[in-house]
Design a protein that fits this description.
alpha+beta, 4-stranded mixed β-sheet, 5 helices, flat
């Protein structure tokens, strides 16, 4: 449906002082705090988890060496989604000198909508990580039952807890105990916290205080002094759960964003109606290949 004079009747009246509602500030691309971006030229991308070998066995003198096998374990699939939005301005509105004002104003609104959609889709992977969606191994993204060749493994905090000194230390320790598909230790480390806006003040005190928080003990803040979370914390305004929190690790091929077609805008005139049409379009996918790239908890 095209934007017509009837929908913007006040703009044709004398004495109009201001138009408002489309000039709000908007959040930057917060998906960059969660995902690493790669380009794609396909309708979908697949990434396959490989198992290595288990621990080497002792070879008794004069006996045969032990053989082991390697294999594929699961496949993470990223299906590109096309995100598009358009609007049109009627020929009559253009004739009545509304074109210049409308085109400038609503192309900005179009870009704002596209940016909001991208942030929402990126955050939804985390919003659904405990209860919905299917990760490559058939589980939710953050669970205690990721199947591997060495048994189930977990990227869910062992005891659900709100963000505090004790729970963050427990998460850091749990990350350091991560294993690969065959049960060998993985030298995983935290990189950054991703938090809902409700936890920003807790995180500021927890990550930047010189001493321990919420205690009378005269101890140093070990998390800060050790640089245990080197990139600090990032607030994501599109996270829904007020007490869920996440840690992005340095494990490669974790949280990924594939960019199939960057944001592009276009306009054209419609011969039949005389309307002018505007469109914004991009194509991408968000997901995770290796679940060890993110740990989290829904909070207490």
């Amino acid at each position: 449906m095209a934007i017509s004079r009837q929908q913007l009747i006040k703009e044709l009246e004398p004495g109009l002082n201001a138009l408002f509602g489309l000039e709000y500030k908007q959040y930057a691309d917060q998906t960059k705090d969660i995902y690493s971006t790669e380009s794609s030229d396909r309708a979908f991308e697949e990434e396959v988890m490989l198992s290595g070998f288990g621990d080497a066995a002792v070879k008794p003198e004069g006996q045969n060496v032990s053989f082991d096998t390697a294999q594929e374990t699961f496949t993470a699939r990223y299906t590109m989604e096309t995100i598009a939005l358009a609007f049109a301005i009627t020929e009559e509105a253009i004739e009545d000198n509304l074109y210049d004002r409308l085109a400038s104003r609503y192309t900005k609104a179009l870009a704002r909508s596209m940016a909001s959609t991208k942030n929402t889709k990126g955050a939804n992977i985390l919003n659904n990580s405990f209860t919905a969606g299917t990760f490559g191994d058939g589980q939710f993204l953050i669970v205690s039952t990721h199947p591997t060749l060495s048994g189930n493994q977990s990227n869910l905090l062992t005891t659900a807890a709100d963000l505090n000194e004790t729970s963050l230390e427990a998460m850091i320790i749990q990350i350091s105990q991560a294993q690969d598909e065959r049960g060998l230790k993985v030298a995983a480390k935290p990189r950054r916290l991703v938090l809902p806006v409700h936890l920003q003040f807790v995180a500021e005190r927890l990550m930047k205080s010189q001493g321990r928080t919420s205690t009378a003990d005269n101890d140093i803040n070990a998390i800060k002094n050790m640089g245990a979370v080197p990139e600090g914390y990032f607030i994501n305004n599109y996270l829904n759960d007020t007490d869920a929190w996440f840690v992005i690790t340095d494990v490669p091929n974790g949280m990924k964003h594939f960019d199939r077609a960057p944001l592009k805008t276009s306009m054209e005139g419609d011969f039949d109606t005389g309307n002018v049409r505007y469109k914004a379009r991009e194509r991408y996918a968000f997901g995770c290949s290796d679940w060890r790239g993110i740990f989290g908890t829904p909070g207490a």
